[in-house]
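Handout, page 2. Input:
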Amino acid sequence: MIDLDGTWKFHYAPRADAAVAGFAEEAFDDAGWDDITVPSAWQIEGLRDADGTLLPRGRARYSTPAYTNVIYPFPLDVPHVPHDNPTGQYRTTFTVDDPGLDRWVLRFEGVDSIFTAWVNGVELGWSTGSRLAAEFDVTEHLRAGANTLAVQVHQWSAASYLEDQDMWWVSGIFRSVSLRQRPLGGIEDVRVRAGYDHATGTGTLRIDADLAEGTTSARVAIPELGIDGEAGTDIDAGPVQPWSAESPQLYTATVTTDAETLTLRIGFRSIEVKDAQVLVNGRPIRFKGVNRHEWHPDTGRTQSEEMMRTDVELMKRHHINAVRTAHYPPDPRFLDLCDEYGLWVIDECDLETHGFEQVGWVGNPSDDPRWTEAYLDRIRRTVERDKNHPSIIMWSLGNESGTGANLAAMAEWIRSRDDDRMVHYEGDRESTYVDVYSHMYTHPDEVARIGVHAEDATREGAADARRRQLPYLLCEYGHAMGNGPGGLVDYERLFDAHPRLIGGFIWEWIDQCIRQVDEQGREFFAYGGDFDEPVHDGTFIADGLIFPDRTPSPGLVEYAAVIAPIRITIGEGTAVIENRRDIIDTSDVTFTWTLHRDGHVVTEGELDVPAVPARSAVEVDLPLEALKAEGAGEWWLDVRATSAAEAPGVPAGLQLGLGQRRLAEPAVVDLAGGVAPEADDDGWRLGPARFSPDGLLQAVGQVRLDGPRADLWRAPTDNDLSKRGQARNWRQLGLDRLLHRTESVAAEGDELVVVTMSMAAGRDAGVRTTYRWSSDGTALGLRVQIDPVGQFRTNPHDRGRIPGPVITWPKVGLRLAVAGPVQQVSWFGRGPGEAYPDTSAGTRVGRFSSDLAGLQTPYVHPQENGNLTDVRELALGAEGEAGLRIRAAGGSPGFNATVRPWTAEALTAAAHTQELVPDEVSWLTLDPAVNGIGTAACGPDVFVADRLVPQRVGYAVTIEAV
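Output:
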């Protein structure tokens, strides 16, 4: 094989008719053309200068990326495309020492969207299907020595109507190009069928070989299994270790003729749909999956093997066991990695026509016979390229392409070619030609009904009876846009309860954003609209479990905890160890326990647990020393499961599960008291604290403060800002622009009592806050009560209309400014990362610390982040400066807290992270309650149990300078 990747010559034309004529001729002089890297997309390459330096926004060398989720960026003038059709022309040379008598094939792994190729001035043909391989026989056109390859690519083609896949529209030769030598008497193709009988533990093997002309036989060998047989025959493989995502056993096989030996990696496994479950090797499996677009912020859809390996290892380390290749076949090397590391794969065809939904599906190609062959061509090329990967257990016809005969024809062709695997397509709501009943973003209430086979009936009785016996899959759920997804625990409970529910795939793996710089040279990640697209879908492209730089987001940490393979429940003297894996037992797991008081480790040890079979549980006794909660303090016992040894993608010591139990309640922290407040010319003094005349806290010891003030606002998350979200209601009631009025300041015994009213202009809804300050001379005590006042309803005054429902609050609590920058934050509570009522599974109770930057989650689109929850004690400080320590007091439960270098209003106003500039003060919020996160950007809003509705709240803390 000759690798043709590298530096090519490139010319860009904004329209097809502006392309350079005669460029494919061998004698054409391309010395004045640009250099471009192949593979790449020219829109991505053009964002940098020739030296690779990012260009400021608006200075791209070629056409720029455009993002849409649903709407096509060109008219629905089927099958025509715009006259302004950006075109890229490529040239390169390569050397063939001696073509000989062999056959030579030029292979393109991916070109977007239509291209024509020439070798030595001879046109070879054209191809569409951007994420599908295309080959040309160039045997008759090669010569010994130098050869010229020319390629012309147009961004738009009739095929673009089939490629509306919620991603950036970028073009070019974005996957590898190679020249492949095919020897006479060689092997043109092979088809592997490697089955497994779970009852006997034996495998069966058949490898059919498509042999070159003149060759009649080939030998199959797997030395490890003692196999040496004839291709095209059924072979008894004897006892084998089956392949699964949990135990990805691969065997090396060779297929040999006199002229060529082909090496394959084979996995033995069986797939079956039975009793509304998916069985692999006789075992029911559950998908703990993710939808994966191919993306990198610097190279777009062009993937290196190192990058793909990083993705797979991140998935394995976060307990993900399945990938849906949304919404096209991936780079084939990714599937090799899925085979190697162990990931179930739904391989999706390169097909989506979602934009026709905008016009009521009129003209949708899915039911138009003129497009039948195009549909069949795409699924044939998908299956034929990927058919020998054991990781693939399901073919998906495509995504969001409506309904129609062409989709059914695709399913029929798959069954005629590969009846070993299942067929998936979410759009087949009647499930007449698929093997799994599939939905997106379904509310848990409906999922629960489906789990017990009680879903609404289909239109036809026969279809209904069949569908009720199919397993149910959420091919997309838990939309991970910005802060979130919330509510994953609710879905997982349902998956646990109902065998018919075979799991789901989070949308999606990565924030598909593009690294850019602004005019000041500050880096940021761009999303829809940042390239001045006339139509776009904004931040909807930033909806991944990992950030664009592949840093795990809090959402990935949450998902990993929810789907953890080991569940540990600590009881009175015992622990229940549940193995939630589908195939393997826990002989590869180490169990340990840790006893800690107030977050400080007291003692720890190993826990003896027998090997627990898959989908089983055991109860074990805890050692006495693990239960010795002696002395004052808040005592917790942790039992942790970790990987005992390195496995594919999983390092030794990786946490596989964690259980916690509080063994002893903390002593109640008394509110400071005994010192009476004193009025003076500057306001009030109370122990170490100074207050303004209107009752605002100005200092505690040497720490200067300003506040606190009632606070109901958070920077809206992407979920809050959606149509289903609450931000619109919050703004209507002015929760983002509260005005504060002090009603009274008075000394009552040894307390300073301050009452304030907070409301927005033009609204009668607000809160009355009562502060009761006290001190023992050293610490400051605060007891707060916050009461809703007025009408927290939408449209309460519109004549003739029923008032809208009671809305939620984003949060409720206090905000104050701390003079000077806070450098370090430590706390006893939940950590180590952010958490909200419906996203706390990934946290544990303990003692943690972080610098200030570490508490700011860098969501691509700035929004609410960094909330610490169940905080018992919080300390803020800076080197060489006095700090603050705040503790929950008076029997109050722990509080929520954020510490930021900017306000929630600044977060709200910023479109990108580089726009956030630290203030001269730090901002601290102390909240007794916050609203959940949900997935309203694409899915359900915050579930009822996690909503914060207007209500009286109160809590108490002590504050002291340290």
